[in-house]
């Protein structure tokens, strides 16, 4: 655990060096919040009775979604792809440290940095300017944080799996991009999953992506009922365990492949 | 060689470089198609659930989106290297453009052909054709020529806006940050009709970052959504003028910037 935090802290500081870009990202988030809020206000004006969720809940969902968006760009995929391309992955593999563990520490450091520098200021702005409601109860707020953490872990492992593939295919950029678009679609980041029609809704409910964004946001906005919350958390854990095992397995296979490639 | 010939010669060289990696080429195109289909899918879900978005129907929104994509694809296919200006300035490699006996701007633009943007071009054309059929549009010659003008103006507006932002690096050393700030405006205007966002937003994307002229304003006219009693109706015809104006500003700024330039290289 001490090693974990050492790496997390190191990457936290490494990210902090590029502070200017991050602050600008903070500044750009309210523009999206503003846009999303107007979008839902316009839609609700047309059909105020839509889907049993109040406008206030919907705006909270959409604004919060923009505030935490940046937390999901902390995966190791691009780092891994870059290391493979430059050959520097050798150095990572030589460390007397489990690679998967190392990546998790790295990403967590960056995520914590983004929570403090981007997500929390953005939530404050959302609260004061864009009708972002506070969670209904303390318990809801706590559940939001727990499910957000689980969502982060699910996202990390999906990203790690994709990064592992980069070691085989050597180029991952375009695939990664298409994957990210798919993930954002099915995670409910822009359009909440309860609006998805028929078959699309069923697919979205099976895929792991809803564990990343939809679950924490729906809990925060008070859309999920008590029983649904238990089920949603169970779903997150279920996919987390599967993806964790898959990551360990795939990495094991890929790693031996690198060894055999090296000369 | 004149400027045009030189530009296309440079592009040809870049393309030959890219063709060495054929798998990337295909993956890149597929990636872009997935990306756009998903964006349109999200809009589609919203509109089918709520029947319209501020009186914009599904196919009108597809038209709006694809008008942007088409203009933007022309820009990013040929000139997307514009955004990389900052890197040359920081690394001091901009000097190479000044040493060669050709226009530095053409050398910069000819640096790269963003070949997988072909996908955007295809999506733009396909989407617009589908929308044209679904909306049962029937344009006369005047509307067709306006449409072509609008697409070309769109490409020029994206290019000029981006080059102006990139040029700020000549003075401040950095321009990436400004791109981060404006990119949400680009995204929102691309996907949604400007009229849902309130006045402050409309004023910004009409004057300060005039990207609403890429798709929103021309679409109002092309889709017969123009309300001639509203105060700003004439803005719908202004895209070509805005494009010309921006070209004027950009060439002025570019010359000022070159005169100001001092290398960071040692």
Keywords:
heterodimer; A: 263 residues; mainly alpha; B: 266 residues; 12 helices; 0% strand
Please characterize this protein's 3D structure.
The complex is a heterodimer of chains A (263) and B (266). Chain A has 263 residues and is mainly alpha-helical. Chain A has one domain (2-261). Chain A is 77% helix and 0% strand. Chain A has helices at residues 2-16, 19-46, 55-68, 77-86, 89-94, 99-129, 138-169, 173-187, 198-206, 214-220, 226-261. In chain A, helix 1 (2-16) packs across helix 6 (99-129) and helix 7 packs antiparallel against helix 10. Chain A is globular, with a radius of gyration of 19 Å. Chain B has 266 residues and is an all-alpha fold. Chain B has one domain. Chain B has twelve helices and no strands. Chain B has helices at 3-18, 22-50, 58-79, 85-91, 95-99, 104-109, 118-134, 141-172, 176-191, 199-208, 216-222, 239-260. The radius of gyration of chain B is 20 Å and the shape is globular. In chain B, 39% of the residues are buried. The mean pLDDT of chain B is 86. At the A-B interface, helix 2 and helix 8 of A face helix 2 and helix 9 of B.
């Amino acid at each position: 655990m001490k090693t974990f935090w050492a790496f997390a802290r190191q990457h936290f500081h490494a990210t902090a060096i590029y502070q200017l870009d991050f602050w600008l990202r903070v500044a750009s988030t309210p523009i999206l919040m503003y846009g999303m809020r107007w979008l839902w206000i316009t839609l609700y004006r047309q059909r105020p009775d839509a889907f049993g969720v109040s406008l206030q809940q919907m705006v909270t969902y959409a604004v919060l979604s923009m505030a935490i968006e940046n937390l999901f760009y902390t995966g190791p995929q691009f780092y891994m792809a870059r290391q493979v391309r430059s050959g520097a992955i050798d150095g990572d593999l030589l460390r007397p440290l489990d690679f998967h563990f190392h990546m998790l520490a790295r990403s967590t450091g960056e995520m914590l940095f983004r929570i403090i520098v981007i997500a929390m200021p953005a939530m404050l702005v959302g609260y004061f300017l864009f009708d972002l409601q506070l969670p209904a109860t303390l318990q809801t707020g706590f559940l939001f944080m727990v499910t957000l953490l689980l969502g982060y872990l699910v996202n990390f492992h999906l990203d790690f799996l994709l990064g592992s593939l980069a070691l085989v295919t050597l180029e991952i950029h375009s695939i990664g991009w298409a994957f990210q678009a798919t993930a954002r679609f099915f995670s409910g980041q822009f359009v909440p999953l309860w609006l998805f029609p028929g078959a699309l809704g069923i697919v979205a409910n099976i895929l792991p992506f809803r564990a990343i964004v939809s679950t924490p946001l729906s809990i925060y906005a008070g859309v999920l009922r008590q029983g649904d919350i238990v089920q949603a958390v169970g779903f997150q854990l279920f996919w987390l365990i599967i993806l964790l095992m898959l990551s360990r397995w795939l990495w094991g296979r890929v790693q031996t492949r690198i060894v055999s490639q090296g000369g | 060689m004149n400027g045009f010939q030189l530009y296309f010669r440079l592009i040809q060289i870049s393309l030959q470089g890219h063709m060495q990696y054929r798998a990337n080429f295909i993956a890149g195109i597929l990636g872009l198609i997935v990306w756009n289909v998903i964006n349109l899918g999200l809009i589609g879900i919203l509109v089918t659930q709520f029947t319209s978005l501020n009186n914009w129907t599904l196919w009108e929104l597809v038209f709006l989106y694809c008008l942007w994509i088409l203009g933007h694809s022309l820009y990013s296919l040929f000139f997307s290297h514009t955004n990389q200006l900052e890197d040359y300035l920081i690394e001091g490699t901009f000097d190479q453009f000044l040493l060669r006996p050709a226009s530095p701007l053409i050398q910069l633009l000819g640096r790269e052909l963003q070949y997988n943007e072909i996908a955007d071009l295809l999506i733009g054309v396909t989407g617009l054709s589908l929308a044209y059929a679904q909306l049962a549009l029937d344009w006369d010659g005047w509307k067709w020529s306006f449409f072509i003008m609008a697409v070309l103006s769109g490409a020029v507006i994206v290019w000029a806006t981006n080059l102006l932002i990139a040029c700020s690096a000549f003075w401040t050393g950095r321009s990436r940050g400004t791109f981060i700030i404006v990119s949400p405006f680009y995204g929102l205007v691309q996907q949604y009709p400007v009229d849902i966002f309130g006045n402050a937003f409309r004023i910004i994307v009409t004057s300060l970052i005039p990207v609403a002229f890429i798709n929103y304003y021309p679409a109002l006219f092309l889709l017969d959504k123009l309300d001639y009693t509203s105060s700003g109706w004439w803005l719908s015809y202004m895209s070509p003028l805005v494009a010309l104006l921006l070209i004027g500003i950009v060439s002025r700024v570019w010359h000022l910037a070159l005169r100001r330039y001092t290398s960071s290289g040692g």
